[in-house]
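Feature request, filed as a ticket because there's no other form

It would be nice if the structure record came with a short human-readable summary line next to the tokens. Right now we just get the raw output. Example of a typical job, pasted below so the devs can see what we mean:
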Amino acid sequence: MIRHLKGPAQSAAPTAATGAVGGADDHVANVVTEIIDAVAERGDEAVRHYSRTLDNWQPEHFRLSDDAIAAVIAQVPAQTRSDIAYAQARVRAFAEAQLASMSEIEVTALPGVILGHRHLPVATVGAYVPGGRYPLLASAHMTILTAKVAGVPRVIACTPPDQGRLPAATIAAMLAMAAIGAASLWAAPPGTRLAVLLGGSWSSCPWIVLALSLPALAATLHAMRGLAPTRPRAAGAAAGLLAGSIGAIGYALHCPEAALAFVATWYTAGIALAGALGAALGPRVLRW
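Raw output as currently delivered:
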């Protein structure tokens, strides 16, 4: 026989004027709406206001420094840290098994027609670890760790303070994710790592960056010519690197890739090509 241990509270009847359910639900909805509107209108000022009034937390910076993290970790008992490591090892093992089961495919349906799919991690993940009266430390395992195993290069995690104090055990779990995440990315299946690195446009990305840098390169070389540089090749290379950076910024606005490894490798290659072109042109166009 099924026995219900807990069920939803009985809602009050809707009011005649608004049709909305009255009571505590209305109060919560009104408070949340007020906070969202205030943050949208006043930004960080509103965030600091509610952090001070609701959590008794008003730090100089919301992002924890390395020293602050180290001080908090030192407060966590050794047994708690050991328990965190044990739980994370179990979650990590299963996440890696899941990742290994996700195969990529590529088939030639017709001559010249290639179909398939790949699994590419997103560039950034935001993770929230609930705290306060009912902290859910394991949320760090389930959100940060799984994202790092998938190969996400940047994970931004946040957790609320505990009555004006930093939640030491929760931060310990979140910090451990960073170290485990780096190892997980290195230990990911080779096919996944290569896909993250190459993306879908590695062969064209550097050349597009170079093409977009040409107007800036021409303008920079023209301006430098009036300065009568004594080392035209070095000056041309500097102009090329500057123009390549501008081209990379322009391409980033439309680039379909977002993985950090892709950007660091192929955008840099495009900037280097612009620098090499500038170095080649320098002795010819900067003579005086």
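Something like this underneath would help us a lot:
The two ends are 96 Å apart (CA to CA).
DSSP finds ten helices and four strands in the chain.
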